[in-house]
Amino acid sequence: MAVEQNRNQRTYFNHPLVDESLQCLPAALTHRTAEEFRSYVIEHVPQNSLMGRRRIAGYLLQRFSRNGQLNLPLAAAIARFGDSRISREILLFELLQVYPVLAEIATHWLAELPETGGSRDSLKEFLAARIPGRSTEKVAKDALTTLTQCGKVSRLKVGWYTAVWSRPPIEAFLYVLAALYPKPAVVPVAVFAGQPILRALLWPPSCIEELLSEAEHAGHISKISQLDQYHQFTVTCSGRERMERLFPSVLRAAEQGTLFNLRPELET
């Protein structure tokens, strides 16, 4: 069953559930087991059908839990920032981690569009070789809906879309930085700026150095060094500590010091 689920996540994406995620995920801070969270979602999403509410709960657990452990940093971010651009930026980052096909769409189709944009048909052609046997229409529709709701796509006319490159809020940047580097590290700026996940998020490369400077000022980076060909930044505290700085009030409310048990590594 787990192997089949992982295969589906690699080759398929459907049901955006952006609004439902923003509505329900903060409850993971107080409904800490999968079954408690499932019951909460079933009771609180507005859909009339019980079967539909159960299906939504299943999708959210599939996306935002691993081995029965809910994604509490994401829950804390949404609890802290509500339904905002910050939360949607962070939610998209997590979705891109879970669904490689969505990351491929963002990185290799959306980010490659010319300023004039591209058609839904071109996305379906892009997907045809990547998800054989799957519905390219369904994946294209739901991926575009997700990316639009997260502020990454603008529809100029029916079936025609452009990419929205924009500087992220500093809070979203700090969250991603903590997630990507959960352990102390010395990171070349060029390596960081060239990560596919930043391209998938449509963060302009020109804003990265300014964001790193703001991260240093906020205490999330200990120093930025530039000498001859070396341009790098140093992270000396753990990702957990940096997450706790972002959400101090949420952490106190949760009354549990192990709230931010970050994954040791994330593929990029």
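The record above closes out task 2.4. Task 2.5 opens with a second protein, given below.
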Amino acid sequence: MEFLAHHGKWAGVSSEFVAHLRESGRLRPEDEPPDVGRWSWVVGAFFDLCTERSIGMALGPLPVLKIAAYAAWQRIEEPWFVRVIGAMDIAYLAQQRSKSSG
């Protein structure tokens, strides 16, 4: 899930600034965001849902009921949505844990 690493690198940076870097030739090819194409709505949903994490001693997983509620709220009917968001969350948590321990 390459986009997770990209998100960690560029979190909070506006797309306009990234476009400026690209246009001025100061954005290295390895820093280009991965093309998620038609799946961008899933990536957006995942990062929307990241605001639903519990706050405590450690970063916790996304509650499955919050994912299901988001799907209902957005009228997402794909049966795989909850499982895919859950898999993305597992990868995201592993990435965050490796960053904090390394």
